[in-house]
Amino acid sequence: LAAILSSTILSAPAACQEVSKEIEAKAVALLNLVAPFRLSDLEALKKTNPQDYQQRVVNYADRMRQLEELQQIDPERYKLRLDEMTLAQKSIYLGEQYRKEKSAEERARLKSELAVLLDHLFDIRGKNKATEIRNLEAEIARLKEALAGRQQSKKEIVRARLSGQWMGSVRDPAALDLTVGPLGFSPAAMAAEAIAMGPAAG
Predict the structure, then answer these.
(1) Are 168 and 192 within 8 A, CB to CB?
(2) CB atoms < 10 A from the CB of 176, how many?
(3) Are the beta carbons of 31 and 57 closer than 8 angstroms?
(4) Which helix (H) or strand (E) holds 91?
(5) Of 10-19, 87-96, 145-154, 180-189, which one has max mean pLDDT?
(6) Structure confidence by residue, pLDDT tens digits, 122-166
(7) Residue pLDDT, tens place only, 93-102
(8) What is the pLDDT of residues 38-91, one digit of tens each?
(9) Dist. CA 134–CA 74, nearest whole Å
(10) Which DSSP string corresponds to 2-67?
């Protein structure tokens, strides 16, 4: 029984361990940015369900780190992403308030506010997608340019590999470029392996 209990404790998820103050600070920083109205909920969760609290804090902190990295790499996309997260959280919050509200007048006000917010959120997500497409197109253009340059240097590349890797210094078959082909290995890779292994015995 002692062995079983010990094994259970050792295999418990990391979320059961207390999170560091640094992780908690990052989680709170995220909520202050995108959903300050959730701070009291998070604090209450810490008392009512510590394990769920820890898991949520780790998740929030990870998202905050991603935002910080994006801010360094691409400030424009960071701003769009931050706006999207803020509007998304606000729309969820307004939906919750609408469902709880009893007053018809207040429900109408919340519904009107939510409609405006969702319209804005739709536009922000469209801008985010457009930015992602532009980035993908730029990456494709870069890869095409690199491929074109490689094709232009084909003779030099083949000559360098022939005189270096396949005919000269490499003797270990495991270090060769064994390119997979229709039958397992390409003819060039099989020839290179034969050269590295030396002449057949007998």
Answers:
(1) no
(2) 19
(3) no
(4) helix 75-100
(5) 87-96
(6) 999 999 999 999 989 999 999 999 999 888 888 888 888 777 655
(7) 999 999 999 9
(8) 999 999 999 999 999 999 999 999 999 999 999 999 998 999 999 999 999 999
(9) 13
(10) HHHHHHHHHTS-GGGSPPPHHHHHHHHHHHHHH-GGGHHHHHHHHHH-HHHHHHHHHHHHHHHHHH
Six-digit token pair at 50?
Answer: 């510590």
Could you tell me the maximum CA-CA distance found in the chain, to the nearest angstrom?
A: 98
Q: Whole-angstrom distance between the N-terminal and C-terminal Cα of the chain? A: 66
Amino acid, single-letter form, for residue 177: D
Instruction: Answer yes or no: are the C-beta atoms of 56 and 15 closer than 8 Å.
Output: no
Evaluate whether 20 touches 54 at the Cβ level (below 8 Å): no
Tell me how far CA of residue 22 lies from CA of 10, 50, 62, in angstroms.
24, 17, 11
115 Rama class: left (phi>0) / alpha (psi -120 to 50) / beta:
alpha
Q: Which residues contact 58 (CB under 8 A, 6 or more apart)?
A: 15, 19, 23, 27
- Lookup: tokens for 17: 């361990």
The DSSP-derived string for 132-164 is HHHHHHHHHHHHHHHHHHHHHTHHHHHHHHIII
Q: What is the DSSP letter of 165?
A: I
The owner of tokens 């509200």 is 101
